[in-house]
Amino acid sequence: MDAKFASAAAAYANAARGLKVPGAAGGDTAGTSGAGGFADMVQDVVGRTVDSSRASERASLGAISGTASLHEVVTSVSAAEVSLQTVVAIRDRVIGAYQEIMRMPI
């Protein structure tokens, strides 16, 4: 039971590490134009989400063909789920911010 918890925690930690914003630990901040700007950050996060989803699909196909273990499938599907939830949360925040700006009196 402890091994399952440890592997699940490791999967979430790996997913969280994969979603870190470039330049967030120092240096450039998101929202600036040019290299390392908001558009680059969004593109990077979406690209990693697509890669995570593809890895999940490969693991699932591997499990079907008998070359991947159930553990690999669960880990990769969990990572893909976390990535997708992050992208959806960012999308909702961006849409909310846009709607709030549109309601501002001019």
Automatic annotation (TrEMBL):
<keyword id="KW-0975">Bacterial flagellum</keyword>
<dbReference type="Pfam" id="PF02049">
    <property type="entry name" value="FliE"/>
</dbReference>
<comment type="similarity">
    <text>Belongs to the FliE family.</text>
</comment>
<dbReference type="InterPro" id="IPR001624">
    <property type="entry name" value="FliE"/>
</dbReference>
<protein>
    <recommendedName>
        <fullName>Flagellar hook-basal body complex protein FliE</fullName>
    </recommendedName>
</protein>
